[in-house]
Amino acid sequence: MNLVTLLPFIVLIGAMFLMTRSAKKKQQAAAQMRNEMTPGTGVRTIGGMYATVKEIGEDTVTLEVAPGVHAVYAKNSIGAVLDDAEYNRIVHGATDDLTIDTPVVPDDASSLTAGETPKTDLSKDEDEAPKLDLGKKDEPGDGPADEPKDGKTDGEAGAK
Questions:
Q1: In the chain, which residue ranges form alpha helices assigned H by DSSP?
Q2: When you count CB atoms within 10 A of the terminal residue's CB, does the N or C end of the chain come out lower?
Q3: How do the domains of the chain map onto residue ranges?
Q4: CB burial of residue 89 (10 Å; 0-12, 13-18, 19+)
Q5: 70 with 54: CB under 8 angstroms?
């Protein structure tokens, strides 16, 4: 056989070997990371939820997703085991060692307009506001609005 025809097959087999080898390494690293979990460790699931490990079983792990709320997950659903400092920074917002160079956006817009005078006076009394005439009469029986449209009254079969 010609070496030129066998060369693509050899390259393909070598690439498959390298891909399976790197996949096995990743699986072993993930398994080792999951074995490092202990109760009280902060973790991130593959879905992106942060929780604290409460109990570790053979194939499952019990996570505290909120204070007093426990959920059972498969061990292979743990995406990362976090150290205490990183977990507290992400979950509790502890920023002791974190420096922020960007300006902080306020929670409300009131601080963005501080010092400016309002362009309209919103402090008018309700008595000063103009009233709309919607065509309704103040007292019953003042006009044609109280008469039936078809000329009938309650209990009559015909018109007036």
A1: 3-35, 84-91
A2: N
A3: 1-35, 38-106
A4: middle
A5: yes
Amino acid at 130: P
Task: Kindly state the DSSP code that residue 38 receives in the 8-state scheme.
Answer: -
One digit per residue, the tens of pLDDT, for the chain of length 160 reads 677 888 888 888 888 888 888 888 888 887 787 777 889 889 999 899 999 999 998 889 999 998 899 999 998 888 888 888 888 888 878 665 555 566 666 666 666 666 666 556 555 555 566 667 777 666 655 555 555 666 666 666 655 5
Domain 38-106 belongs to what topology?
A: SH3 type barrels. (2.30.30)
Q: How far apart are CA 154 and CA 44, in angstroms?
A: 72
What is the rounded radius of gyration, in angstroms, for the C-alpha atoms of the chain?
A: 37
Structure tokens at 78: 């743990």
Instruction: Indicate whether this model's pTM tops 0.70.
Output: no
